[in-house]
Structure formats: structure tokens, C-alpha cells
């Protein structure tokens, strides 16, 4: 039997709230510290405790981090799902099974390791509750022993997780030891899976997208943060609160250079953002689908009255409550025009944790430069799962506060019209309340207004204003983050955005290896589309748009934008709530390419 | 601003009364709201508010149009229906130095905006929150709002049978530190109440009954001019003495309650029929209930706690407006990012 080294997935099935997170993180980090690329996907229920949860660690020497459909290794700790979990395993797989769990007979060609977890934790502590919690660490010991994960790395990872809590450390170390020893003495190594040291993670960090966004906001100079708790967005603001408390107090007075308000709902959250943005603060909120639905009226107000603000949407599956703990890219169309009336929003589409960090800063610059709400669409997979990344660079550029006139500038100009297109880019000048000059004041309203911000129902005023807003949107095309393009002049192009990106490289490798299909690739990073997107669509005979929603929302936007090329745009869709895998993408493209051959 | 020639009187900041006016009102002639606008103009002139330090905010409705009609040199924000409180909160967070004057209506506050109103009060965001209360929706032609009294009728004769929301009682329950009720027809009472409200450090709720001449000034309406005049029962005569003036009044001992506001100004409350202590919250609620039972409209300064601190204080914010902090004060240094990155390499916190 040939060893399978550094190329497999481990699925751990536990009960929600059983302390499995520490165990899963320790195992994943230990492998990461051995220089082997990893990714972790947490599949959790909308529940605090008791329902089943799965954590998948993908170990990939090639650096693939997308979800895979199958796992080679199962750790079955949850009696409720064990039968189904075990039945899902393929020939050649390895199963670590809690001995106390009864499952139907497993075919011979799967390696089953039965472990008496209850007996192993007995000598460690007399506390029944603690026994339950450390059972999961025992599994880490067993798996580490079987796969050859370095025990020093396990210990380092454990220490990093538990910090200086000596009692907890001792307890968990004893549990690890019990796992190691049991496996060594009782479980002959029959399965081929091994972890061996590599040098592919040196210097890298592991972080989730929500934390990356929080760090970005911290360094982007955010001063007002409002929010209403909602999964999967809450951890963004909670992490931000933590960092702000640590790093954003005045060194002299200890007072806060920021304000965080937990609002009574998302309407209020965005209202506060617009109020603060109007008065000159860098303000943001973070939410998910249902919250956006509530924000709709204010979103249109912000667009029409031209007020900066940043709104993060960590997408989950809708409509309605949907699957609140599952990932999706289903908000794109809705957010792109969030409002009644003619509205088009600037939308940033981070695809990596690095993007989350950088877009958190860029969103403020864009919102203030363009005087408009800027939406940032992340998703549960990007936001809540752990991803490897190069460390984030310190922002080298100063911030861009946009066209704000001071009292001195007003004095020099001698006139100020709030909504006049002075520079021809559709972006007018604004003043902030508190500016001490008789020309400074203006009246902001969601009703019709002329260039001087006066109430107006005149048809020509309305049209002039709306046309200027369209011009401003065109200006945004060159200012928003540019797409990443890999164009080698091939016939077929693949186009994706957001977390879907991580399945694309692997899918393209599969298409090359399995179907001899070479593809070009474009990763969209923002709306409105810039010249690069147009060129890519124009240049390829077929453009496969891969996205995680039912209705092909990005494809719809592309067809709207480039009607002459609508027929080139095809879709590969994935929308079951699990992060998209490369196989779904390559199979989807292959099937349509075959059809194409038959038709033509 | 207007050239203050010798003939036109100016206030202590060198502005004329006209400097506190706005564009011409487009509301119906005789509308109570116009009288409130006049009271805002006069009171702002009298205490010498600096217009650039004021922001005017409103929601949607007849009332919410009025910020265009006063303080033309102040920034204004006419928000969406019922959501002015969240805008006010955001403005306050960005620039706590601004005096916020919010104008809302009974539909805007007690119907669609009741939630935001409650949470504004709960957070004690410093806003002079004026409710121009006529019990009906004017702009949509006379439907009842949530402050319509039981038994009051629309112009077409429909009778309201639902309990009214009493915004003053609600504000008191929520811990509001400044609660007043007045009548748009009583400038003598309304002006000093507004001046006192400008000096308050938290949310100041001023509920002003303001008859709708077009849809609620008929016999069956409990908020017609005639009905309000008949049932108005002031708690006291009010005088406001700004901090830059001396108190020149002689009252008999015990005839007057003096309330000193945080800026040193003083509110003098002269006893009328009965003695009323405006620092007793329970008594304030009781007086509203008793008044309602006796079909009286109790007006005056219902409750005040000048010691209250605003939301910015609660949040422990720096003294300067957050909006004007320079980059170096809101972007931590390289060493901070290094520290965070190091922790993410090892998984420590």
C-alpha cells in the first residue's frame, strides 16, 4: 500500500457545543506549523448546543484550499450522525470511531479504529462535564499518532489556543497523551495517510475573513461602528470591538477614538452610519441578508442624497431566514440596486482574507471619494472559516477623505452648490456640519433637489441630477479594485468572484489534466465593472461564470452590461449552502463544453 | 450673513433675527407648526445660538419639512420616515460638539418611528427632540396617528377608539432627563422651554400640541385650537435666564422653583394653582395621568434632571469630534500590525 502524504481531508463529526472547536483548531494548526498547507471549514447548525456539527481539515501539498466533496478520514464522535457519516466514507478511507457508538457493519476495505474515549478520559478528571470536553482532545492525540503529526507542534498549537490557563493546559495535555498512547499500543497503522514536513507555510498567517476585515477597518481609521447581531456577520464587529479597545485609545487620556453602538435593528444601524458619514466620520456597519432587507430604504437615501458609509454583507443563504449558517453569493443582484427607484451601488467583492483587509480600508476611501454608500460582499465561507495568507502589509498610502470644503476654501471660492458637477466626474463637493462659514450650510433631503440642494420637483432638475449620478457611477469604474486577470489568448474564459475563487485554480488544473481544456480566468473584485471585464468578455468565445447562487446573478449583471455578448456568457452554479468545490466547477464546464461540441 | 447695520438689532453673537430664519414655509396658513418654527427662530436668536454649531434633523411629514424654514445657516438633514433618531445618533457620534435640533411629528415619532424614538431616549443622545403633535397625518390628508385621543374624530366623522401613545409619559418611563409639553399657541411658554432644552446635555423631549388647521381643527377633534385652548392647564409660568444674563426677578420665597442647567443658565418656574416640583419623575407621570383623567392638557416642564450626561460621555469618547481626528490618531502604527500578524502566525491572541 502506497502512502498518501499531505493530500487528504479529515472530517470531524461532533456535537455542537461539545468543545470541539479547540481540538479541531489544534490539529489544523499543528499540521500548518509543519509547513503543510491546510484549510478548515466549519459546518455548523443554527443552534447553541446539541445539534450535529462537522469540521473539515483539508491537507494539501499542492496548496488547494477549496472544500472537497469527500474526505479520506472521518472522526466520528457524534452518535446521532455516525451511521450516516460512516456510510458516506469510500473504500480505502480511515475511520476513527468512538467505541461507544454503535454503527452498522463497515465494509472491510475501510480501516476502522475503535477508540474507547469514555474509558480514556476517566483517569484524567472526575468532572463529568470536563470529561466530555476533553474527549475531543483525545481524538487529536489519536489522529496525530496515526498520521504522524509532530507532537511538539500539537503542543505549541495547544498552548497558543489556551494561553496561560495552566489547569486547562495540564488537563488537555493529559488527554492528548492518553490519545497518543492508546493509538500507539492498540491501533496498528493500516491506513496509508501521513503528514510529513514541508516548507510551504513559512511566515504565513491563518485567519478568517471577518477578523481580516476588522483589522482592515482598524487601520482604515474607522471611527463609528454600528451593528445588530446576526450570523455570520457578528464576529466581524466583535473582533473589531476587541481590537479597537486595545489599540484605539488616546494614549494621554485613555479615551476612545471610536464609537461602537449596538443598534436596535439594522434600520437604525445604517441610519447611524449615514448620520455619522454626513457629519464627516468614517462609519461602517456589518450585517447579513435579512439586515440588508431592512436597510433598503436608507441605502437608496444614501445613494440619492450622496452620503458616505460602508456596509459589509457577510452573505448567508436566503431568502428569509433561509439557512443562516450556510454560505451563499445570493445577495449580489439585490445589493447592486438596493433601493426603490433607479439606484446603482458600488459593491466590493473580496475573494481572500487579504482582500477583506484591504477592501475594509479601500471601502472608506471610495465611500468618501464617491460620496455614496459602499457595500462589501463577503460570505460565510470567507468570513468565518480559516484561510492561509501572507501577512498583511501596513497601509502605505494616506487616506482619501474626498471633496470636502473647509471654511477657508469656501471663503476663497465665494460660492458653493452642494450638487453641482464642478469637475465633470459626477462627484460634487460637500461641507461638514460645524464648518464656520455662512456659505457652508446646505439641506440634505431624500426628496427631489436641485444643484443648490433646494427642494425641487422640476423635471429638468431631476433628470440632471440622475444623469450626474450615472456619471459618478462611471467614474467609479476606474476607482474600484481591479479584477485579477489571467489571459493567455485561450478560447474559453472562466469568471468568478468572492470565495468561489478558491475552487477555480483547482478546477482549471482538473480541466487541463482531464479534458485537455486550457482556460483563461478573471476574478471580478467590484461593481461597477471596469474596462478589464469588458475586454475579457469580448475576447472569449465562451465565458463560464461560476457563482454560488441559483439565479446566475453575476451572469445577469454581465448580460445587462454587455447585451451584445450575452450569448457568450454561460453559468456554472452551486447553491446547496456548502462552499463550492472544484469538482462541481470542472464537471459543470466539461458538461457544457461537450454539449457545445455536439451542437456545433 | 446679513449685514448688521445700525438699525437692525443684533444678538450677542452679532446676528439679526432674520439670520435665524429659513426659506418660506409651504405649510397651510395658520398651521401650528409655523408658530413652532417662529418660536425656534426667536428662542435661538435670544440665546444667541451659533448657527454653524447647530444641525437640524427631521423625518418625514408636515412637521419634518419645517427645518427648511428656520436657521438657514445651519446644516439640515431631512431623513426617511420615522428614522431621524438614528441619523441624530450618528451625527452625535461623529461630532458631539453640535447642538442637534430634531423636529418630528406624531406619526413620525409615535407610529412609524416609535422604536427609534424609544432607543434615542434610552441612549440619551443629546437632541432637542420637538414633536409637532396634531394627532393626524397631514400630508396624506387626515388619517389618525397614534397620538389621536380616544373619541376624537376625523373630518369625515370617523371616531378613534384606540388608546393614544403619550410621548411624554413614554419618555419619562425610559429615563429621559428633560420632558416638556407645550402648545404652539403659547409662545410665552414654548420659547423658554426650547431655550432650556438647548442647554440640556441629554435627549430633551418637547411635545408641542400643534393643531392641524386643515384636517383636525373641527369640533370633534381633541387637538383643535379651541379644544387645546379650553383644556390647556399649565403647571407653571416659565422664564429662562441665559448664563450671560443676571436674574432680575423678585419672587416671594417658595413661589418659584429654580433649575440650574449645566451651562449656568437658570429656568425659573413660577408656581400657579399648585406647587410642582419638576425634578420628581414619579410625580411627573402622575400629573400626566391625572390630567388625562380630568380631560386636561398638562403643559410645562414636566421633568428635568440637569445632571444627566449624554451618550458621548457614556461611550467615553475623546473630547474632539471623531470626524475631525487626524489620520495619525486613528491609524495605529506599524508595530501594532506586526504584533497582530505575529499572533496570527502562532494562533495566540
Can you walk me through this structure?
The complex is a heterodimer of chains A (600) and B (349). Chain A has 600 residues and is an alpha/beta fold. In chain A, strands 10, 11, 12, 13, 14, 15, 16 and 22 form an 8-stranded mixed β-sheet that branches. In chain A, helix 10 (289-305) links the parallel strand 12 and strand 13 (309-317). The longest helix of chain A is centred in the first third of the chain and has 21 residues, at 166-186. In chain B, 31% of the residues lie in helices and 19% in strands. In chain B, the strands form 3 sheets. An 8-stranded mixed β-sheet of chain B has the order 2-1-3-4-8-7-13-9, with helices on both faces. A 3-stranded antiparallel β-sheet of chain B has the order 10-12-11. Chain B starts with 31 loop residues before the first helix and ends with a helix. The mean pLDDT of chain B is 95. The chains are: A alpha/beta (600), B alpha/beta (349). The interface between A and B is large, with 80 and 64 residues.
Largest interface: A-B, 80 and 64 residues
Taking Cα atoms only, what radius of gyration of chain B do you get, to the nearest Å? 22 Å
The count of strands of chain B amounts to 13
Task: Give me the secondary-structure category of chain A.
Answer: alpha/beta
Give the termini separation of chain B.
Answer: 56 Å
- DSSP strand content of chain B: 15-25%
Mean pLDDT of chain B: 95
Q: What percent strand of chain A?
A: 15-25%
Please identify the structural class of chain B as seen in this structure.
alpha/beta
Poorly predicted runs of 5 or more residues of chain A: none
Helical fraction of chain B equals: 25-40%
Number of strand segments of chain A: 24
Order of helices and strands of chain B: HEHEHEHHEEEHEHEHEEEEHEHHH
Poorly predicted runs of chain B: none
Alpha plus pi helix count of chain B: 12
Radius of gyration of chain A: 27 Å
What is the approximate shape of chain A? globular
C-alpha geometry of chain B: globular
